[in-house]
Design brief:
This protein has 250 residues and is mostly helical. The protein has two domains: 56-106, Arc Repressor Mutant, subunit A; 125-249, Tetracycline Repressor, domain 2 (Orthogonal Bundle). The chain is 76% helix and 0% strand. It has helices at residues 5-38, 42-47, 56-74, 81-88, 92-98, 102-124, 134-151, 154-165, 169-176, 180-194, 203-224, 231-249. The longest helix has 34 residues, at 5-38. The model is unreliable at 19-23 and 40-49 (pLDDT under 50).
Length: 250
């Protein structure tokens, strides 16, 4: 007697439902065997599983970010393409497929970092209610600069190594801070001088002095001593610096 077609479909449906369960049980069993015979952790097992294949753009960004961390730790001359490849878990051939030379990779890091920092400035800073309010402008700029470098000091480390090794990154570093926010500060100082509210100071040199005070503070706190706790200390320093600076202008 022929089987009912409806029964066949029910049987097939039941079998298909069991496949995920079977696969899960197989995976669990493989994991147990792997850990028992190799004295390894489950994390080691998953490291052998196939990984998501990155697109060319994603791979390029991955190499840049890995290399950026190494350059900020060991400098340009102290970082080899072999070390970058090892840290990125790729071959050196993959690196040279994206970047013909280490110098090209370094230039890509510069461009990537500057663009990323510029985007962060736009996100972190808010236009002041009064663009002539020098105290608000200085405080907002200082808080943004210090908070960002507390979260990640890579940018400052790159700048320091670049200055020591005579790379063009240092020019790019200072160019990034010629942003609208800093121009607003410089213009506010110039307006105060023109209206007789401030002393006859050079706006550009005054702003540079303020910036270097912040930079030295970040180097000392976040790079030399690697202190990222107690942000209230940063707030107190900023208030003190802004007060001294504004009183000096007047």
């Amino acid at each position: 007697m022929a089987a009912d077609p409806g029964d066949k479909w029910q049987i097939l449906h039941f079998i298909l439902l069991q496949i995920p369960i079977f696969l899960n049980l197989t995976t669990i069993l493989s994991l147990m065997i792997f850990c028992s015979i190799s004295d390894s952790s489950p994390q080691d097992y998953w490291s052998f599983m196939p990984r998501k294949r990155l697109t060319q753009a994603e791979r390029r960004i991955q190499i840049i970010e890995v290399a950026m961390t190494l350059f900020a730790t060991k400098g340009f001359t102290g970082t080899t393409t072999r070390a970058i490849a090892r840290a990125a878990d790729v071959s050196e051939a993959i690196i040279f497929r994206h970047f013909a030379t280490k110098e090209d990779l370094y230039n890509a890091i510069i461009t990537y970092t500057v663009e990323k920092r510029s985007e962060q400035w736009d996100q972190d800073t808010t236009p002041p209610p009064d663009p002539r309010n020098i105290e608000h402008l200085l405080r907002d700029f200082a808080q943004t600069f210090v908070n960002r470098n507390r979260r990640d000091s890579t940018f400052i480390r790159l700048m320091m190594y670049s200055a020591l090794e005579d790379h063009k990154f240092r020019e790019k570093f200072f160019a990034i801070y010629s942003n609208p926010h800093m121009r607003s500060i410089r213009q506010a100082i110039q307006t105060g001088v023109d209206q007789g509210q401030f002393c006859a100071v050079d706006p550009a040199e005054s702003l540079r002095s303020f910036f270097f005070a912040l930079l030295q503070y970040c180097i000392s706190r976040f790079v030399a001593r690697n202190e990222t706790d107690m942000p209230e200390r940063d707030d107190a320093m900023i208030e003190n610096l802004v007060t001294i600076f504004v009183r000096g202008l007047r």
